[in-house]
Amino acid sequence: MSSATEAGVSPLLLMTVLHNEAYKPHHPLLERLWQWWKAEAAFGVANMHRATFEQVRRTHGLSERWSDLRDDPAFAIHAAALHLRDLDRRLPERHVRRYTRDELLALGYNAGERNMRAFALGVPPGPMARSYLRRFRAHRSRAAEVLADGDGSHEATSR
Q1: Cα gap 58→126, rounded to integer Å
Q2: What whole-number percentage of the chain has pLDDT above 90?
Q3: What pTM did the predictor assign?
């Protein structure tokens, strides 16, 4: 998974997050309609919210816009990989043992950096974050299988 490699994050982490974010259809037309109803809806195959994208865009000098996430799956995956790298740089090296580093990064992707850091220090996640973590753990083996297929076509079409 080239986006993960380029960003310096685990391909398994990124693929598992993508599997976790596959709970809604990711068709550009449906996302446009959803945005009409809910203006701050998340976009793209990685379900990235505008504020998160804008932070990634500024940090990494991206020229694309938030709305480009819905039309370009490869770009959405690239932005997600960059965000996971940014989260990894902000995660304390030492953290509670009940979570792996990848689990904390996935929780950060879902619940935000501040919450990720709190979970790393032992603050228990709320019900939504716990549900996300359960799904992350459940999707891990499927994500590993997709990566093991290794034909390269999954990055933009695995959803």
Answers
A1: 30
A2: 66
A3: 0.85
Angle at the Cα of 10 from the Cα atoms of 21 and 146, rounded to 5 degrees: 60
Q: Read off the amino acid at residue 55.
A: Q
Tokens (6 digits) for 16? 């598992």
Angstrom distance (rounded) from CA 134 to CA 132? 5
Q: Which amino acid is at 14?
A: L
**Which distant-in-sequence residues (6+ apart) come within 8 Å of 125 by Cβ?**
107, 111, 115, 119, 133
Whether residue 72 has pLDDT greater than 60: yes
Q: Give the helix/strand (H/E) hosting 35.
A: helix 28-37
Asked if pLDDT for residue 129 goes beyond 50, the answer is yes
Three-class SS of residue 62? coil
- What confidence tens digit (pLDDT) does each residue in 9-37 have? 999 999 999 999 986 665 666 666 666 55
Angstrom distances, CA of residue 152 to CA of 118, 157, 158: 36, 10, 10
Contact between residue 17 and residue 46 where contact means Cβ atoms under 8 Å apart: yes
User: What is the dihedral sign for C-alpha 103, 104, 106, 110?
Assistant: positive
